[in-house]
Structure to design on (191 residues):
């Protein structure tokens, strides 16, 4: 037989039987938590609370800032609209015609042209003479509230009235013929 078989056949030397359980010495007294750990925990909690309060204050302040900026934006929008209305009124044909009339300008005659090849003037070479057929300063046929009471650029003492002054003759004219446009376009009588 071989040596391996002999090792298996022979019983193993018995070990000294020692009990696996043993008595424990008296428990060690419980340690009190160290003061440093307690201070770190309290300081951490205070830091977290202060951070939350700070963020809450910043959020609230930002909300107030947004509300203020929204209010300013709305006020600027209204101001922009008022300025656009003023520009629209001051650039209206009625206001421009009244300023031109105050300057002494008259409605032009048929146009004249200069031919450059021989320096000839084609058309009436005389300038516009006489009075204009449209009186934009005193006979505003259509009321314009945007320029009512606004002084003219050339004559600060005069301004366009806000109401229309339409002749009674225009309102009672025969409806079969169109009204004369000598004093501007008439407005219809409405209720």
């Amino acid at each position: 037989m071989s040596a391996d078989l002999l090792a298996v056949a022979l019983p193993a030397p018995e070990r000294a039987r020692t009990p696996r359980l043993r008595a424990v010495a008296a428990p060690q007294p419980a340690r009190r938590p160290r003061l440093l750990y307690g201070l770190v925990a309290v300081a951490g909690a205070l830091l977290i609370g202060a951070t939350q309060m700070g963020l809450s204050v910043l959020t609230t302040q930002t909300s107030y800032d947004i509300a203020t900026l929204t209010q300013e934006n709305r006020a600027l929008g209204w101001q922009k609209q008022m300025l656009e209305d003023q520009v629209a009124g001051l650039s209206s044909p009625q206001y421009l015609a009244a300023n031109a009339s105050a300057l002494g300008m008259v409605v032009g005659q048929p146009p004249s042209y200069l031919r450059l090849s021989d320096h000839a003037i084609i058309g009436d070479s005389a300038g516009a003479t006489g009075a204009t057929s449209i009186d934009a300063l005193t006979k505003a046929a259509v009321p314009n509230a945007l320029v009512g009471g606004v002084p003219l650029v050339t004559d600060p003492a005069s301004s366009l009235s806000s109401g229309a002054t339409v002749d009674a003759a225009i309102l009672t004219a025969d409806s079969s013929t169109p009204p004369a446009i000598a004093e501007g376009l008439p407005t219809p009588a409405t209720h």
In short: Confidence is low (pLDDT under 50) at residues 162-171. The first strand starts at residue 113 and ends at 115. The helical segments are 3-9, 35-90, 93-102, 168-171.
